[in-house]
Please model this.
Amino acid sequence: MTRTRTVRALVWGENHHEKNDALTRRLYPDTIHGTIAAALRDGLGHEVVVDTATLDDDAHGLSEERLAATDVLYWWGHVRHDAVADEVVERVHHHVLAGMGLVALHSAHLSKIFTRLMGTTCTLRWRQADDRELVWTVAPTHPLAHGVPQPIVIPRQEMYGEFFDVPQPDDLVFVSGFSGGEVFRSGMTFARGHGRVFYFSPGDQDYPVYHHPGIRRVLCNAALWTAQDRPREAPRLTMRPLDEFATAPAPTEAGGA
Model:
């Protein structure tokens, strides 16, 4: 289907490490969310309009009006998941079910919105020991894999490993292997209501992963795939009384007398 309008992307960042950790400020002088936003602008040009929001903004930058004007929401959080207001999570949840895309990045696996959408603990194994990560494409025809190197080589990264407690995904697009021998389902999609959800694990505040051209390609692909060119509408269950079916006239046979 031909897209009829520009994708409206909103990159949400916790913005904690940028304010408190010198290493993160050195790696991401424009903030993590700012770096992701720049990757989208650089990679997609006129195909996308990008804005940012943070935990510190009023309503965390996620008002009803702003979400209504967002096609895809990128979520990066790490240590302040509990600080996200429940009413904001409910608002985001409603918009995802109605058709807004959600890209949950790295430690967003434990965010309130992702665990709400998954309905599981979303826990995993991890180790911070400067592992090399190889991100292998296992669904090469999926739009999320378009133009992505095979594999993406990340020289230094935090290890995420199985078991990852999420539901069976609709698509498994990327699988990572680490220098310690662990494997991880690092790129998965889920349909929730009318919305598309993409979880992508590479990207940590202590490593310059979001500057990697292969990772930036995936982030751009995610904007185009999760954003749907259709009206925002929450799924509805239409109730019909059973007696409608009981009293319906019987079908006549074709060619009857």
User: Anything to note?
Assistant: The chain has a mean pLDDT of 91.
